[in-house]
Known about the structure:
heterodimer; A: about 110 residues; mainly beta; seven-stranded mixed sheet; four-stranded antiparallel sheet; B: about 110 residues; six-stranded mixed sheet; five-stranded antiparallel sheet
Amino acid sequence: DAGITQSPRYKITETGRQVTLMCHQTWSHSYMFWYRQDLGHGLRLIYYSAAADITDKGEVPDGYVVSRSKTENFPLTLESATRSQTSVYFCASSESSGGYNEQFFGPGTRLTVL
Amino acid sequence: RKEVEQDPGPFNVPEGATVAFNCTYSNSASQSFFWYRQDCRKEPKLLMSVYSSGNEDGRFTAQLNRASQYISLLIRDSKLSDSATYLCVVNRGNRDDKIIFGKGTRLHILP
């Protein structure tokens, strides 16, 4: 089915472990984004990508790594998970510049770090 | 001043009433404005873009006031299904690829 998907939908991990959240879109959108959403903070941008092999930091990039070897995939890795990274993570994509066009969001991944 | 500010609510409004939210933004260079809707435990979805001339989509009307740097959303004849969190979204301007989300305004429509 066309759209944007995220996996896993729920994840529980322990402090210090590496975790990778997957994001896949079938629209061939150029732009992809990773946000985290926490109570009291709203949605905050972690990283974004304007095209394959082009990534850039957002507002809260520390502790996260991204890659984009293919247009359709944009995985987010927590290299050594911390409790403060417990959050809901949303991936999004847009056809062109994310600042001017609708962003389409995936269903989210609920991550708990114990 | 925060980049995007919204009244968090909740707004508890009887069904059929009219409700309005405002959102202020701090960057005068911002050029794109949106309202997104987010249902509980779901992803945000675009409700409508906000144009300089104002725009209307059925029961929803969005307005932009550049001089005072705020956007507004008006919902007429509210329905139970309008219960959600409404996110004000503004770009950073200067052809920036990034947008800033407000923390959202919670709306509860009461039967």
